[in-house]
């Protein structure tokens, strides 16, 4: 039986579970969790999810992102750029450029 987007979304695990060598908690309290994500050149992170929050790009880079429905897009990430994630959004990512660093601020509750 083919997987639907909803099923893929439900099965996606948090980035800390699927990429423990690339994603580490650098700050956490009862309101937020800050995760530093480092992706080497050509590295792939499989389908994963994030909690609601925003991400900050520490440096510039180029990534390919595939959503839970199989649609992929290439992004040129700018240094200092912010992006928003809704709770439970799932995607897989491939780093197409040099080492990329990002800070993800996730809201709890």
Question: Please, could you describe this protein's structure?
Answer:
The protein is globular. 10% of the residues lie in helices and 53% in strands. It starts with a helix and ends with a strand. A hairpin with a 4-residue loop joins strand 6 (61-67) and strand 7. The protein is mainly β and 109 residues long. Mean pLDDT is 90; it is low at 1-10. It has one domain (5-107): Sandwich (Jelly Rolls), CATH 2.60.120.10. Strands 1-4-9-6-7 form a 5-stranded mixed sheet. A 5-stranded antiparallel sheet has the order 2-3-10-5-8, with no helix packed on it. The longest helix is centred in the first third of the chain and has 7 residues, at 5-11.
* Helix-strand sequence: HEHEEEEEEEEE
Global morphology:
globular
Please, how many helices?
A: 2
**Widest sheet, order of strands:** 1-4-9-6-7
CATH architecture name: Sandwich
Assigned CATH class: Mainly Beta
Low-confidence stretches: 1-10
Residues in helix, %: 10-25%
The named CATH superfamily: Jelly Rolls
| Number of E-state strands | 10
Query: What is the count of distinct domains?
Result: 1
Bin the strand percentage: over 45%
CATH topology: Jelly Rolls
Give the rounded overall mean pLDDT. 90
State the end-to-end distance.
34 Å
Secondary-structure content class: mainly beta
Largest sheet: 5 strands, mixed
Radius of gyration: 13 Å
